[in-house]
User: Fold these one by one.
Assistant:
Number 1:
Amino acid sequence: MTELTHEASLEHAHPEHEGTGVDDRKLGMWLFLSSEFLFFGALISNYLLYSNRAGFPGVYPAEIYDIPFTSVSSFVLLMSSLTMVLAHNAQSRQDVNGTRTWLFATAALGAIFLGGQVFEFTEFIVNFDMKLSTNPAASAFYVLTGFHGTHVAIGVIMLLSLWGISRRRGGLSDKQGLNLELVGLYWHFVDIIWIVIFTVVYLLSVPPA
Amino acid sequence: MSSPEHIHHPSPAQYWKIAVVLAVLTAVEVAIYYIHRDFDLGHFNTVLLLLLAALKFVIVIGWYMHLRFEKSTLSRFFTGGFILASALYTIVLTALGVIAIRGG
């Protein structure tokens, strides 16, 4: 009877789809991330459509990019993927302190990246007068990078929530460990989207001749 | 960890090595950007930067997101979404003249 109850509770904690053999929540997260490709694809395409089109008033984003600064930001976000996977690894070894430390490090790196984005936007608006409504290229740039930044901000909130739960309860349970895995997947996805944005939007973008 | 398949995941030391590879690839990307500014690599610049980005993309998905250690169902769903989005926007951007097809 006790065994049955234990099995039932395990099934409840990790409900697996009969056909796929994959945890439902995990499958749901992968499907969600897969659908996000369409979302970001639309925003990147929108940027590519207007970034090089001549005839708009005001400054174009590609004329004022600070590549060294953005390279450092990209490096910071890339390293946050390392700390995230180390948090996941620590959780799998039931290393409570390690999990907490790496979770906090990931959130801190995400916050640094966001700070960099706020600084970049401020520079563009104050020093170059490139606002959201300046021209379609600027608009596409702010919408794309702004939406990505929003995803990072949501990730930071989720990471800090897990860190807070771990601190309050003295560690993460199996179920919360799965939450950490799902947040990790989301975080890495945000990172791979930035890999594309950094190359396509920053390194390959050229202003109209 | 939530399920037995995770036992094959890389060790922390391997994760650090992967991070070094990703950092080096990023440094190479930035170096190519500056080399192209001074010496004009032409289309080679675009091809090279896209290849490096694709490599970083695959490394993060495969090793950090553990997709190469997961069940094939997840790979199919994820790569399916990626291929669908890539194909859709390649067609749209080609139709709108952003991506040029040479020949004829």
Number 2:
Amino acid sequence: MEARAPSGEIGRARPDARTRRFLAGCGRFTGDTRPVGALHACFLRSPHANARILKIDAQAARRAPGVEAVFLSDDLARACKSWRTVSTAFPGLVSPTQRPLAQDRVAFQGEPVALVVAESRALAEDAAELIEVEYEPLPAMADYRRGLEEDAPLAHPETGSNRAWSLDVATGDVEAAFAQAACVVEDEIVFSRHTGVPLEPRTILASFDPSAQRLEARISHQMPHQMQAHLADLLDLPMSRVRVVAADVGGGFGVKMHVYPEEIAVCAATRLLGRSVLFVADRVESMLSDVHAREHVVRARMAVSDEGRITAFDIDDLHGIGAYSVYPRSSTMETVMAIRAMGAPYRFEAYRARANVVFQNKAMTGQYRSVGHPIAATVTERLVDRAARALGVDPLAFRRANYVRPQDMPLVNPAGLRLLDLSHEACLDRMMALLDYEALRGEIEEGRASGRIIGLGFAAFVEMTASGTEVYGQAGVPVAAVDTVTLALEPDGSLKAAASVAEIGQGIGQGIAQILAEGVGVPVESVEVALGDTASAPHGGGAWSSRGAAIGGEAAWGAARKLRGAILEVAAALTQEAADALDIVAGGVVDASGRERMTLRALAETVHFRGHELPEGVQAQLAVAHSYRRERDAAIPTNGIQASLVEIDGDTGIIRCRKHWVVEDCGRVVNPLLVDGQIRGGVVQGLGAALFEECRYDGAGEFLSASLADYLLPMAFETPDIEIAHVETPYSGSVIGAKGAGECGTCAAAAAFLNAVNDAIAPQGASISATPVTPERVLRALGRINGEGAP
Amino acid sequence: MTVDFAQEARVRIETRVNGRTIRAEVPARLSLVEWLRDELGLTGSHVGCEHGVCGACTIVVDGSCLRGCLMFAAQADGCDVETIEGAVASGRLAALQEAFYRHAALQCGFCTSGMLLTAAELLARERNPGRQRIREELSGNYCRCTGYQSIVDAVEVAARAQQEENGS
């Protein structure tokens, strides 16, 4: 492994150059460009959660003004295949076939039934209202806690059961650990379904050129290459004739990493019509059809020995995944991560977990930022706080005594996680200093003495990031986890790069530019990185699993060093010096004395315009490519600890998060300004889930929170300042040593918050084990209101 | 729309947009932000919810920020409309733009136009808003990426810059 240059652009806090455009009102989101003559799509969606489609009459809609076509399921079947989620990682997974439009039955409210394509969105909506659909409503499987009962309504009548999948894990002697425990704590924790809500809704502009048989899809998506592969497959085209362009993407968070029926329907329609079709989901459609996540009930027990050591966990998870297991990655990835990440910061010997995954007549669920981890962190950290309280020890002291220590690693823990390069104690020390623990505890006691309801909560966490090729590759799911960067020296001495990682606002383009600048030895301003267009970017993973810096960054470093070597070879030939006596500094070739011998511009001009001046036998290679496949560790673990300070209004039940802290170890930090932005944004999404966010359905499967007036998001007013500190333990398996940083904020924010709420109300003998922690839940816990209602 | 496929009800308007007078015949049901985006090509205003909650479509009409999705284009007859494009060109957002840039007060950029215009309206009204005031005033604009702190930082810094410039 080659040593990294000691200083330079890697690690420098720099604003993201790309953001200048947005600040000038010059973003280029998918819906901002529409070719003349583009048609507009509108979907007619099912009003029922579960119903047979008896008859559809679209005659009136087809004759409506401005309508180009109305498509039903059979119409689109002429242009595209159906799909079904299959993964050998989830043996026995049941997942019904999906089509762009519902065929004979609808399985959730909002499922697309017909597609109207018209001259404007308004006209398409007018026409959609004229379509008459005769439904035979079926009982809806809405309450997933009843999903496995014998007389429960079936989400899919043909499957005979609501069970989509189940998972059993058992390591060590759990029974003995609990029998011998000095202390057993348990809880049942309820997590409400919520969703990512990227501010830019899902958008696609698809065009098909019948003469060349080429499809171009401009789409707001996290993985343009994955979409290219699936569009080619489903529409039966060679990948070389499918171009996918993800321009500026207005937030993703996992919502925009799947194959959705609407996008496939639009591509099939454009293929049948030979005209461009634009679909921009409106907000209600987005809420109804974007993937939701994290609807779980977890019953959990933890055993603690008489020495105060955690010995075992016993977990029972029920996970409601909606009507389908999302394509292609499967909704059960969340189940697996929730189960595997339980207890991850701590040493323990025995582990038993059972997860039941059930279908519901609700929107599909899928990967959402920090997939599964927030479930694991919340359950684990509730149990840890309960144990500390039961034993009468300080919650941080209890954590410290049980942490996985440097000398324990590498370690495959009983839940199956491979842990290495973690720094729990160092993070805890940093946290205690950051919030001045003793003083803060004193302030809280003072506040309590004067009647205030205040609490401080902590959550340690481990987050698995930067998934490697095994994760989906072994499962037979075609997902790229190798990333590639191409890099060339332009005649003016600037660098032109293209990378297979994707920009969705996290600033990875800036990060890649900084790595390239340091790796070659040029100012960062002279590096331009193209992302998101399958016609220019090499095939690769896009944006998922916090992989940009850890995987894409390694590819960039490799490409930079290759180009640097190629440049120095040319320079050596031109200066008659040995290549290893030369270096590139600030865009110039310097010799051992540090004297600049030529600028990169002069060198590049010679190569590109006056190649005849090069000595015989010199073939300059100023365009290089480098791919990076991590050879060990299926994922890179990261760790840290979060703290939350809350104050509760006992009369209204309203909770104010006054301050939040994060100490985090994501290995080498490539750009602290942007990494901290990721952490803060992630924390606030976690706090949103803990405080407000809930996809509420009634017993008939009707979605009750499909507008932003009903689905509450955190606003500036109720969001705290978030203080951040880093411990940097570089990943030992790569050159740069970066780990994933994009999701850790979300991982443990809700856990720390829930612990803080419980710390606040514990003096009243109350506790809460459900999120979101609504005012109603608070008032019930405090005994201020009684009677029927939410648990 | 250049072709009228549906003989929709249309309304004649005369509106100043970013300082230029525009005479147009607009569908009666077309929202102001759709008209600006789809027909005038002013795509710096974004459409995030179409029901007046998210603030991504914030535009300035007769000097006040409002939701471009909650107003019909037809209602802009006789109005003076300024979009992010006009505000940027006028230079009045320069300090905010720079502070947003330096503090990474945006990630995906979708909310940014609305944030800038809302923040500018606050700074035009209050010379020295504190952090909590800034948080209150920005609470009509959702940002799903930053967690808001960097935006509050940027507005605070721009307010200070503005004060120094005014010699107070």
